[in-house]
Structure prediction request, 220 residues.
Amino acid sequence: MSAGSAAVELSGCTVVLGRNRILDDLSLTVPAGSVVGIRGFNGSGKSTVLRVIAGLIAPAEGSVTVFGEPPTVRVPRPRIGAAIDAPALYGWMSARGYLRTMLDLSGVPDRGESASALERFGLADVGRKRIFQYSQGMKKRLSLAAATLCDPPLVLLDEPTNALDRQGEQQVARWVADHRSSGGTLVLATHRPFDVHLCDEVHDLDQGSFVQPEEVRVDG
Prediction:
């Protein structure tokens, strides 16, 4: 897909869970090769937007396409990397074993991708350590490593620098710059100023709808 075309298209997406309307007639175009931020407070619907793009939630109304196809139909998962909400990390496994398992589940042989991903986020020296021994920041780094395995053209990240120290933030910033320069697309959900500064464009979300920044309701 060439730069300037759409990697992601959401059109009139509405998501209802129980009696709650989580997203309300939401439309979004994410150009290929761009870094797009979804900014909002807790409960605004940011993570739900990512889950819709990933094909984990089907909208009750509207449509979503990723690289021109519905994400649950013909978009191979190796083309989408995601770290959404709290990742399911198996504490008894080593970090290296966890990444190799992720590759196996995607049908991709490990030709050094797991080692590269650990190196990318500063985990190369602790790759054999059991995940239950990891700090919250280390677990965050591992979830980022898993999301970026094999350099998928579209990556979805939820609060990518939350729980990270300054070094971790800079590792994320370097990866974002490299991903963008190689033509990759990134959609991130965040409320953190550091993450916002990584974006080419930012859309403010409040109670399931995009709004102008001054319209965001702090008490929502």
Observations:
- The chain has six helices and nine strands.
- Strands lie at 6-17, 20-31, 35-39, 61-66, 80-83, 154-158, 185-190, 201-206, 209-211.
- The longest helix spans residues 166-181.
- Residues 214-220 have pLDDT under 50 and may be disordered.
